[in-house]
Amino acid sequence: MSPRVRRIRQAFVASANLRPMAQQLIFDRTPAGYAGVETYARRHSGEDAGALAWLVVGYAHILDHDYAKAVDPLNRAKPLAGDLRDYVDYYLGTCYLQTGRQAEALATLANFAAAHPDSILVRDADVSYANTLLSEGRPAEVVAVLEKDRLPARSDIELALGRAYAALHEDAKAAEALANVYFNMPTSADAETANAELRKLPLIPFGTPAELKTRAELLIKAHRYNDAADTYRELLSQVSPEGRNAVQLDLADALHHAGSDHEAKNEVTRLSGLNGDEAAQRLYILGEIAWDSGDNDTFYRSVDELRQTAPTSTWLESALLSAANLHLVHHEYDQALDAYREVQLRFPTGARASYAHWKAAWLTFRQGRNEEAKKLFEEQVALYPSGNETSAALYWRARLAEEDNDPTMARAFYNALSERYRNYYYAELARERLPKLPAANDPPGTFPLLDRIPPLEHGDKIEISEVPADDLHVQKAKLLGNGGLVDFAVRELQAAASVEGGSWAPAETAQLYIDTGHYDRAIEVMKHSVPSYFAVDFPNLPREYWEALFPRPYWSDLKKFSVANGLDPYLVASLIRQESEFNPLAVSRANAVGLMQLLPRTGKLVAHQEKLRHYNSTLLFSPSINLELGTHYFRGMVDQFGGSFEYALAAYNAGTDRVQEWLSDGKYRDAQEFVESIPFTETREYVQAILRNASVYRQLYAAQ
C-alpha cells in the first residue's frame, strides 16, 4: 500500500467504535447524539479518528440546515483530515456560502480541483464555487468553471450556468441550460427554480411543443400526474390544431391517474374529429373512469364499443384485460375466462398475451375441465416459453399427470421445473412432490415440449474478484462508513469500480450497507446486480450474494418471538423481507410501520393482548417491539385459518374478510391451488414470494 492508503486504512481500524454513535447521530441528530460524537472527537483530538468524528458532527449540522454551527467542527477536522480533507473543504465552502461569508467560501473552493484532483467531489465543489461567484457578480468566471463539467448533465450545473449566461445577457445560451433542467429533468430539485428563471428571459419563447411533451411524459413516468396535467395544459396553447386532440387525450389520462375523474371526463366528452386510434383511446379512458366509479355497466359498454370500432387497437387489449380482471374479482368465471381468451386470441404477441393465456388455462382447470386444461398448460409452455407463467404451467401439468397415474411425465416436468427455475415457488413445490412419486422402473420419457424452455440468461457462475486494497477510493469508502456517511462511501466505491473493473463492487457495496444497518439497500444492490437470482442454483452465486439477498438482522429477537408463537423463524424472516426488507423505519402509504408493517391500531390491540405496559405507536419503530407484536399478530391469523400459513399470509396482505370470501368460493385440492386462484395479483405474488423466500432461507442457514 502507498503511505496515503496505509494511513487511511489505519484510521479505519482506529475509528471502528465510532460507527454506532455516528450512525445514530446522522439518523436522528438529537442533543445526546451530538454530545456523544463530540466527546469522541475530543478524546481522539490528536488522531485521524477524531477528525472523522468532527466531520460527522459538521455534516449532521448541515443536515439540520444549521450551517453556522457546522463551521467550527469542520475547521476542527481540518488538521488531521488527511484524505478526507476534500469532504471537509467542500462542506466548509458550502457552509461559508450559506452563511454569507463569500470571501471565505471563495478562498476555500477556488483551488479545490488542484488540491484534490482525485476527489469525487470536484464537480460538487465547482457548483458551490460557481454559486459563490454568482453571488459576487462574476458570471463570466462561472461559465469558465462549469462549461467543462456539463457532461454527464446535472441539474445544479445547468441551473448555475443558465443564471450566469442570463447575467451576461446571453439569453439563448441561458435558455438552453435552463430548459435542459425544466424540460429534461422535471423531477429534479432545481426544476421549478429553472422554470422561474426561464420565464424571466426577454424575447425567448417558453418551451417548444416537443420540450413540453418530453417534460409531461417524464412526469407521467415518475407518477407526478398533476404536474403532468399542468404541462399538457400549457402544451395545448402551443400545439397545432391537428395535434390538439392527442394532447387533450393525454391530459385526460393524466387527470384520471391523478384522481380527477370529473375533469378527465369533461376533457374527453367535448372532443370531436378524432382519428381511429384517438377515438379508441377516448373510449378506453371513459371506460376506466367508469370502472373507478363502480359503474360497471358503462365500463362494459365501452369495451363492447371498442370491439366494434377498434378491433385491433391496443386500447382494446388493455380494456379486455381490465374486463377480465373485473369479472374475476366478481366471481364471474365464465365471463372472465372468455375475456382472457379473447385477449390472447386477438393479441397473441401482445405484452400481456402470456398472462391472459395462463389465466384462461387456469380458469379452465378450476372448472374441472382437466382434459382441456392439460392442452392449455402445454400450449402455455409451447407458445410462451419465456413467459412468467411457464413455471406454473409446468407444475400444474405435472399435477394432472400424477392424477392420471403417469409418474414418468410428472417426474420429467417436475425435474425440468426444479432445474430451470431453481428457487421459484413452484420449483420448491416440485421438489416436495418428486419423492412421493412411485419408483421409476421404466427409462425416463422424452417430452420435446420441455426443450422449448430457454436456458437461463446470465446463468454462469459468478466469482468475486479481489477487492483492490491499495485503491484510495475503496479505503475512503470504508472510513466514511465508520462515520455513518454511507452515501458518500457508496460513491467512493463506484468511483473505484469504474477505474479498477472486476466483479468485487456489488458484494462490497452490499457489505457496506449491511455493516451500516441498511439491509434494504443491500438487497436492492444485489437484485439489480443479479435480477434472475431466483433461477440460479446456490453454487453459482457467492455466499456473500445470498447472505446480502437474504439477511438475518435482529436474529436473536426474531427467533425468540417466532419460537414463542410457534412460528418458523425463516418464514417470519421471509415475511419481513417482503414487507420492509428489514428497514425498521419503513412506513407504507397506508401508514403501516416497521419491520412487520403493523398498522398503529393493530399494534395497540396486540400490545393490549400482550399486556405490554407504557405502549405507544412510536414503539413500532423498535425492532424488538415490532417483532414481539408482529409475530403474535401473525400467529393469530394462522390459528384463525386452521394452521394454514398460505391462508394467513394472504390475510396478512389482503385482509381476513377477503380470504374468507375466496375460501368460500369453491373447493381446492390443496393450499397451493388456493394460492394460484387468488384474484388479486399483488396478494398471489406476495404469498408465493414469502413461501419461496422461506425455502431459500432454510437452505442457506438451516445447517448453521
Walk me through what this model shows.
With 704 residues, the protein is mainly α. Among the domains are: 3-204, Tetratricopeptide repeat domain (Serine Threonine Protein Phosphatase 5, Tetratricopeptide repeat), CATH 1.25.40.10; 472-549, Serine Threonine Protein Phosphatase 5, Tetratricopeptide repeat (Alpha Horseshoe), CATH 1.25.40; 555-701, Lysozyme. Helices cover 67% and strands 0% of the residues. It contains 39 helices and no strands. Helix 12 packs antiparallel against helix 13 (191-200). The longest helix has 21 residues, at 681-701. 46% of the residues are buried. The model has no long low-confidence stretch (mean pLDDT 96).
How does the SSE layout of this entry go?
Elements: H1 3-14, H2 19-28, H3 31-43, H4 48-63, H5 67-77, H6 85-98, H7 102-109, H8 112-115, H9 122-135, H10 139-146, H11 155-167, H12 171-184, H13 191-200, H14 209-221, H15 225-236, H16 244-257, H17 261-269, H18 276-292, H19 296-309, H20 314-329, H21 333-346, H22 353-366, H23 370-383, H24 390-403, H25 407-420, H26 425-433, H27 472-482, H28 486-500, H29 505-515, H30 519-529, H31 543-549, H32 555-564, H33 569-579, H34 600-609, H35 623-640, H36 645-654, H37 656-663, H38 671-677, H39 681-701
Helix pairs in contact: 1-27, 2-3, 3-4, 4-5, 4-6, 5-6, 6-7, 6-9, 7-9, 9-10, 9-11, 10-11, 11-12, 11-13, 12-13, 12-14, 14-15, 15-16, 16-17, 16-18, 17-18, 18-19, 18-20, 19-20, 20-21, 21-22, 22-23, 23-24, 24-25, 25-26, 27-28, 28-29, 29-30, 32-33, 32-35, 33-39, 34-35, 35-36, 36-37, 36-39
